[in-house]
Amino acid sequence: MKPRVATALAGAFAVLAATTVHAQEAPATAAAEPAAKTVTEATAAPAVAAIAAPAPALLLPAYTEIILTPDAEANSKKLREGHTIPMHTVFDVMHNGVVVIPKGTRGMGTVTWRTGKGAFGKSAKMEVTFNELTLANGQRLPLAGMHRQEGQGNTGAAVGAAIAVGVFGAFVTGKSAIIPNGQHLIARTNEPLAYAIPAGAVIVPTAQLAPAAPVAVVTPATAPAAEPAPASTPAT
């Protein structure tokens, strides 16, 4: 009877020990699973790429000077109000050490006023209003300004002819207003122009002002010391 009781008690203790070990392992496993899941999620989460802020826009200021010239001679004898005159820039327009508007950029002007030449040496006159530039990327930059051209009149010749032969002075006419190719016409940009400095662009440093020449300090001439008066000899 005693051996059976001992065997039963040993089996009960073994079952109890196994149950206790299993109960202790279960919380540890449960605690380990969220931690592993958190690590896995953190590792698997995609990294958010940092978005760089755009560089501030560079601006060519409004009212920047532009030098233009007509593509071909503009003659008041052939032109009328409303006619357009193709032009191009003569020099590079630079800002911050880079070329913003290269020379040769296409431009346009319009004849907005014109008078023909007349008798007695009256010369023709013509006004051209600057319209716009067409940049390399197709953008149009409005221009401001106007150029007035006047023909070289023959007033002196007409007066001389009138004195010499009277009414025949009326047949002396003036000259047409002509703007030749190569003549410099000054226009201005009518609004700011945003631009970017391309990679590899050559930056031309702004010329430094020459240092001012030292001012020569003129030392006033020292007046010669007065000669001491001769000592007087007392009378004896």
Topology, pairings included?
Elements: H1 2-44, E1 58-60, E2 65-70, E3 74-75, E4 84-89, E5 93-95, E6 98-101, E7 106-115, E8 125-134, E9 140-144, E10 146-150, H2 155-165, E11 178-179, E12 185-189, E13 193-195
Antiparallel strand pairs: 1-13, 2-4, 2-12, 3-11, 4-7, 5-6, 7-8, 8-9, 8-10, 9-12
Task: Note down, in words, how this protein is organized.
The protein is of the alpha+beta class and 236 residues long. It has two domains: 1-36; 58-195, Lipocalin, CATH 2.40.128. 23% of the residues lie in helices and 27% in strands. It has two helices and 13 strands. The strands form four sheets. A six-stranded antiparallel beta barrel has the order 2-4-7-8-9-12. Strands 1-13 form a two-stranded antiparallel sheet. The protein has a two-stranded antiparallel ribbon with strand order 3-11. Strand 5 and strand 6 form a beta hairpin. The model is unreliable at 45-49 and 156-169 (pLDDT under 50).
Amount of beta strand: 25-35%
H/E order of the elements?
A: HEEEEEEEEEEHEEE
CATH architecture of the largest domain: Beta Barrel
The CATH topology annotation of the largest domain reads as Lipocalin
Q: Characterize the largest beta sheet: strand count, sense, and whether it forms a barrel.
A: 6 strands, antiparallel, barrel
Query: Helices and strands: which structural class?
Result: alpha+beta
